[in-house]
Amino acid sequence: MLPSHVFIIAGRVIRQLIRDRRTMAMIVVVPVVIMTLIGLSFPEEGVLDRIAPALLATLALFFSFLLTGVSFLRERSQGTMERLMASPLSRLDMIFGYLFGFFVFALTQTLIIVLFTIYVLKVNYYGDLWQIFVFQIVVIAAAVNLGIFLSTFARNEFQMVQFIPLIIVPQVFLCGVIWPVEQMPDYLQWLSAVLPLTYAVDGLRGIMLAGESLLDVGLELAVLVGFAVIISILAALTLRRGAAG
Predict the structure, then answer these.
(1) What span, in angstroms and rounded, lies between the C-alpha atoms of 46 and 65?
(2) Which of 4, 36, 172, 190 has its CA 20 to 30 A from that of 116?
(3) What H or E segment, with its residue span, contains residue 70?
(4) Cβ contacts of residue 200 below 8 Å, gap of 6+?
(5) What is this structure's pTM?
(6) H helices of 129-195, where?
């Protein structure tokens, strides 16, 4: 069982974000606007069905990473991290506290995207909806941890945003969203094999397009869980340097 102060940190993060009405509005409005534009861009029947799994995985990773990275950086810039570092809390406790706090909002945003895509854009799928949700939970857990980890290397929001073209955009090009991985040069296929978004896209495609179960995409799930665990440990190890700014 996790220590109670982990949930205290998470609760403080949640309350702070809820009080920020603009951020809350953006969490709800932005994914709806983007998915609406995407839906209108593919009027041909069946096209959106085929690309929906890749879109859901990519947007879950992108939004969760951006929300977590910028919010965690704000915690450091306001001096909250320094005060926590002076307390008896371990760095892993702080990482888990922030992870749960940011996870709530990342999950909310991801659920909005999934439900809007399925029920408003009328995307057809073959797997169970609850299994899509469970898989997406693992994806955003990995993305939240990645956002926390990389934010320790940024000193301001501009630097944090620069990680998007450095970390997120290459994954979009190499995970098979735009071009099949099998048709890429060998060295790009090897690089694709170590990117979390590759496994997120493959897993969701298996569930939504082939009707597979979570057991069938067990390899993809295991890789994403392993990635989240490793990144959370790295985030804890770099937290003191990051808190120092």
Answers:
(1) 29
(2) 172
(3) helix 47-77
(4) 57, 58, 60, 61, 135, 139, 142, 175, 220, 224
(5) 0.89
(6) 129-151, 157-163, 169-174, 186-192
